[in-house]
Inverse folding.
């Protein structure tokens, strides 16, 4: 049957796919719109499979803090190239995913992928459809849902880096401004853990071995290597765990001391640093 421009435009409005893709799908489906929609979705699946191993280093990070400040959610939707990250359909899907996470208080990434959006289909299917339309791999690379006495967020100016900081022991103190400073510190200084107890054993062992090798290369006696390595490990903790880091705005204070100075018993329960392409 003949495929008219009106038919093509109707399918385009239904799916958001390109004009040529819609025309080809309608031709293949002999004008059957439902079948044409299925063809376009399968096209998305084929593109997704073909590009599954591609790196995603662009995209957007979005956050939402509840009205009472006790819950924060952060989602990172990634793509392959910057132009795609600026497409309205990409931005709209990212916002829809975050909105769904907030509306249903979704717990984790797997639950988010299976959650249904306004069209009645799962997030995962909506992502596949957009893959077919944009021709690039798309992926939710991170999703976090955090609850605490107060949660504070920060989004970097490039839109590809976001931080959630969960505070406990607030006791009526509004830590919004302090939280912004701590969140920006996390964004810039990339702590690997909250405190030294949170550093995984493999990292500790690696740092000790590196410390020993450095000392050995400097000609230090074998009997001194362990002690020297332990000293270097303490320096690693100071530089790479949040509570022990020097506060960027005032190097006379560690983050732990800054919190204690702000309010007795105030501490950071957890933090999430989410970055695309880094």
């Amino acid at each position: 049957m003949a495929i008219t421009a009106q038919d093509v435009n109707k399918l385009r409005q239904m799916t958001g796919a390109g004009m040529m893709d819609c025309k080809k799908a309608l031709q293949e489906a002999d004008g059957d719109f439902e079948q044409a929609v299925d063809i376009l979705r399968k096209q998305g699946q084929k593109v997704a499979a073909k590009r599954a191993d591609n790196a995603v280093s662009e995209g957007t990070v979005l956050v939402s803090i509840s009205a009472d400040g006790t819950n924060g959610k952060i989602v990172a939707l990634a793509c392959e190239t910057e132009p795609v990250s600026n497409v309205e359909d990409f931005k709209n899907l990212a916002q829809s995913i975050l909105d769904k996470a907030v509306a249903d208080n979704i717990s984790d990434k797997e639950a988010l992928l299976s959650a249904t959006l306004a069209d009645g289909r799962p997030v995962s299917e909506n992502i596949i459809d957009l893959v077919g339309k944009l021709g690039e791999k798309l992926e939710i690379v991170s999703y976090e849902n955090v609850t605490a006495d107060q949660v504070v967020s920060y989004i970097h100016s490039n839109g590809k880096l976001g931080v959630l900081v969960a505070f406990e022991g607030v006791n009526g103190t509004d830590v919004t401004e302090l939280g912004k400073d701590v969140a920006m510190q996390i964004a810039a200084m990339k702590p690997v853990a909250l405190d030294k107890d949170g550093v995984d054993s493999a990292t500790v062992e690696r740092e000790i071995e590196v410390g020993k090798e450095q000392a050995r290369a400097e000609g230090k006696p074998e009997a001194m290597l362990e002690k020297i390595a332990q000293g270097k490990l303490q320096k690693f903790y100071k530089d790479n765990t949040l509570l022990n880091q020097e506060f960027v705005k005032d190097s006379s204070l560690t983050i732990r001391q800054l919190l204690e100075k702000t309010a007795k018993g105030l501490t950071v329960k957890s933090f999430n640093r989410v970055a695309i392409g880094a």
In short: DSSP finds eleven helices and eight strands in the chain. Residues 33-50 form the longest helix (18 residues). The first strand starts at residue 58 and ends at 65.
